[in-house]
Amino acid sequence: MSFWGYSSASERRSYARQMAASLEKSGRKLEPVTIQGLKIARSFWGKAWCEHLESFSDIFNRLERGRTYARNGSVLHLAVTPGQIEALVSGGSLYDVRIRIDDLAPTLWQSIQEKCAGQVATMLELLQGQFSSQVMKVVTDRHQGLFPQPSQIHLKCSCPDGARMCKHVAAVLYGMGNRLDDQPELLFRLRGVDPAELFSTHLHLPQARDAEVLPDDGLADLFGIELLLDPEGLSP
User: Fold this and answer.
1) pLDDT of 115-130, one tens digit each?
2) Rounded to 5 degrees, what are φ and ψ at 98?
3) Which H or E element spans position 184?
4) Which of 4, 41, 43, 90 is the S-S candidate for 19 at Cβ 3.0 to 4.6 Å?
5) CA R_g for the chain
6) pTM over 0.70, yes/no
7) Do the beta carbons of residue 41 and residue 186 sit within 8 Å?
8) Contact at 8 Å (CB) between 178 and 46?
9) What are the DSSP calls for the chain, one per residue?
């Protein structure tokens, strides 16, 4: 690594590979973020995640600091558990990052389900982002969609940078966008909701007590037949 706190992209990549090799040799199982080319995300869900975060101007400038770190392989490990992203990022040292995301409010999730009712046919269509523009508008709504608000994102990094969003945290947030390319179901895990509820069908059949019951003579008049009221009369 270079002196005076500066290192080139190639030096960072080399250092990241060394750190990863050391961790794996010690038995640590890593899930690294690997970005090919300049595009961090390629899929509907990955791009929507990044675009949503970038839409908030108060965090966008700080978010930009993590792009290079994400692209050069500095996110050595990124795992998603319900409500949390856990990551390891190599920088001047190896840093532990924890990003906690609030669960989607039940009332908001119910509203999303109602707006998408009957418009998402299968889980495959949902995860591939193959749905109507109306559904797309609902799930990506800046304030009422699936993606978290800045106030619902709680950041923690073991680095000495005192900023709320250091470059290591920002790299992980971009890394999450890349991870959604191949595992879009992680967004639902992160928000604490079941994606199957967006396309499940619930039929509400009328109860017997709600149905109108016709008297026997009414049935006879309706169908133009004589009803045999004595069941024993059916016997030979």
Assistant:
1) 998 888 888 889 888 8
2) -130, 125
3) none
4) 90
5) 28
6) yes
7) no
8) yes
9) --STT---HHHHHHHHHHHHHHHHHTT---------SS-S--SHHHHHHHHHHHT-HHHHHHHGGGHHHHHTT-EEEEEEETTEEEEEEESSSEEEEEEEEPPPPHHHHHHHHHHHTTT---HHHHHTT-S-HHHHHHHT-TTTSSSPPGGGEEEEESSS--SSS-HHHHHHHHHHHHHHHH-THHHHHHHT--GGGGT-----PPPGGGSPPPPHHHHHHHHT------GGGG--
Q: Say what the alpha-carbon torsion angle 134, 60, 80, 156 is, to the nearest 10 degrees.
A: -150
Q: What share of the chain is helix, strand, coil (3-state, %, to 5)?
A: 45, 10, 40
- Paired tokens of 83: 């409500």
168: tokens are 């290591």
Residue type for 112, please? I
Residue 204 corresponds to which tokens in the numbers above? Answer: 């509400």
Residue type, 222: L
Q: Where are the domains of the chain?
A: 9-198
